Amino acid sequence: MVFNLFKGKKEKQSFLNTQHNLMYEEQFEFRESLQKEYEYIINNHFNLMNEIQQVYSIAINQPSIKNKYTEKCKELCKKDISLSKDYIEYLKKIHFSYGYKDEPFIGTYPSFSTLAKIYEKEKEYQKGILVCINALRIGYKLDTSKGGLQGRLARLIKKYNQQSGDNVSYDYDTNILQNKNGKQIEI
Questions:
Q1: DSSP SS3 for 8
Q2: Residue 108, strand partner residues
Q3: pLDDT at site 105
Q4: Angle in degrees, 0-180, between the axes of helices 68-81 and 110-121, rounded to the nearest 10
Q5: Distance, CA of 165 to CA of 147 (rounded, Å)
Q6: Which of the four pLDDT bands, split at 50, 70 and 90, describes residue 104?
Q7: How high is the pLDDT of residue 27?
Q8: For residues 40-57, average pLDDT
Q9: Alpha carbon distance 93, 56 (integer Å)
Q10: Residue 166 region, left (φ>0) first, then alpha (ψ -120 to 50), else beta?
Q11: Is the pLDDT reported for residue 147 higher than 80?
Q12: Averaged pLDDT for residues 112-127
């Protein structure tokens, strides 16, 4: 004989609902604690993004890209990029808290592409390449262009090669930058 804890279906459903609610409450509390733990990162990231958008708009509409607004924008982008690893860590923790086993979708982190665009406008292609590679290595692949960060990186490498006469390439599978002889370039 099987031992039955419940007198009927209603009691069983009530018990299951209570268990489900307790599990949901624990998950909610965990996510809430994550939000508090990463509050500084999240708030600073979004505040910096807003400021970057405003300053970038002013910077690119000046007679020359070499101006104080461009410098300010680069500063802000670098400050925001310094938060990017913690931000992606937060996104992953939230993702896995829902029980997902796969890697989370990591959207855009605009400071990478904004900084790369500035370096491109300044013809500082090598610096733009490094920004893109840094973003790809962290896990960001998207930006506002059709080709994403990989497409932006390809364009920067092409322009760098034209400017320098070098023949640098990037292996997207291994995240390795190499010269024409296949020798890895340390960055």
A1: coil
A2: 142
A3: 77
A4: 150
A5: 24
A6: confident
A7: 74
A8: 96
A9: 31
A10: beta
A11: yes
A12: 96
Amino acid at 63: P
Contact by Cβ (8 Å): 111, 77:
yes
The pLDDT score that the predictor gives to residue 173 is: 74
Q: Residue 131, SS3?
A: helix
Nearest Cα to Cα of residue 81 among 59, 108, 56, 99:
108
- How would you label 88-118 residue by residue, b for 16+ Cβ within 10 Å and e otherwise? bebbeebbeeeeeeeeeebeebbbbbbbbbb
- DSSP assignments along 138-171, one per residue: HT--B-SSTTHHHHHHHHHHHHHHHHH----EEE
How many CA atoms does the CB half-sphere of 111 hold within 13 Å? 26
Rounded to an integer, what distance in angstroms lies between the CA atom of residue 145 and that of residue 46? 21
- Read off the pLDDT of each residue in 153-178 and give the average, rounded to a whole number: 85
- Which residues partner with 184 through β-bridges? 178
Neighbour tally for 85: CB within 10 Å: 12
In three-state secondary structure terms, 81 is helix
d(CA 74, CA 78): 6
CA neighbor of 105 nearest in space, from 121, 91, 124: 91
Q: What are phi and psi of 176, to 5 degrees?
A: -120, 130
Expressed in angstroms, the distance from the first to the final Cα of the chain is: 70
